[in-house]
């Protein structure tokens, strides 16, 4: 996962540079594109961190992770069932 996190950092830095160049040139489209790339890089880093955290949690306490997944599945199923009843 380090590759994904590194790619995110590179994308964030490139987006920051692109945003700065757009600001200097007065190009709003380039500024927005740079900001979007920067935010996408940050999101990629957060996802990599969350994946690492989930992997560590699964290896250290798999039963707790299984219980959490069952709980989330139950809640989603209950919401879906309630939504189907409301549509009828």
TrEMBL record:
InterPro entries: CsbD, YjbJ_sf. The chain crosses the membrane at residues 63-82. SUPFAM superfamilies: Hypothetical protein YjbJ (SSF69047). Gene3D superfamilies: YjbJ (1.10.1470.10). It comes from the Bacteria. Keywords: Membrane, Transmembrane, Transmembrane helix. Belongs to the UPF0337 (CsbD) family. This is CsbD family protein. The lineage of its organism: Bacteria, Pseudomonadati, Pseudomonadota, Betaproteobacteria, Burkholderiales.
């Amino acid at each position: 996962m380090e590759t994904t996190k590194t790619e995110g950092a590179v994308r964030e830095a490139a987006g920051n540079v692109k945003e700065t160049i757009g600001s200097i040139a007065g190009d709003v489209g380039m500024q927005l594109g740079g900001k979007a790339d920067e935010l996408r890089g940050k999101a990629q880093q957060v996802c990599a961190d969350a994946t690492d955290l989930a992997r560590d949690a699964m290896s250290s306490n798999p039963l707790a992770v299984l219980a959490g997944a069952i709980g989330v599945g139950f809640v989603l199923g209950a919401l879906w069932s309630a939504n189907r009843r409301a549509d009828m």
